[in-house]
Amino acid sequence: MPDGNVLGHERVGQLRIITPDGRASEPVKGVPAKFVQQQGGLLILQLDPEFSRNRLIYLSGANRKVQKPARVVGAELKDGALENFGK
Fold it and tell me: At 75, is the secondary structure helix, strand, or coil?
């Protein structure tokens, strides 16, 4: 991330902001519940190329209700929480 932090994700559906000295934040709020079975769960995380301006991130994972390969969804990362899904 532009401020030197890293946005890390865990397959169980948690995102954490990790500082340059290795400290991890509490889990980011607003991450959708993910279905975790075999290869399911939160699989991919990507910052938008304009992240420093728009704060958009993209997530992909297996959805608990659908239980099929997941789609990519976008959301804004603001103050330790995800908002405005569907961007």
Answer: strand
**Burial of 71: CB neighbours in 10 Å, binned 0-12, 13-18, 19+:** exposed
How far is CA 58 from each of CA 35, 61, 62, rounded to the nearest angstrom?
A: 17, 10, 14
| Other Cβ atoms closer than 10 A to 16 | 17
Return the number of other C-beta atoms located less than 10 Å from residue 14's C-beta.
15
6-17: average pLDDT: 83
Tokens matching residue 58? 């993209």
Closest to 85 (Cα-Cα) out of 29, 12, 8, 19: 29
Q: Using one digit for the tens of pLDDT, what is the confidence trace for 20-64?
A: 999 999 999 988 766 455 556 777 789 999 999 999 999 887 655
Helix locations, the chain, DSSP H: 51-54
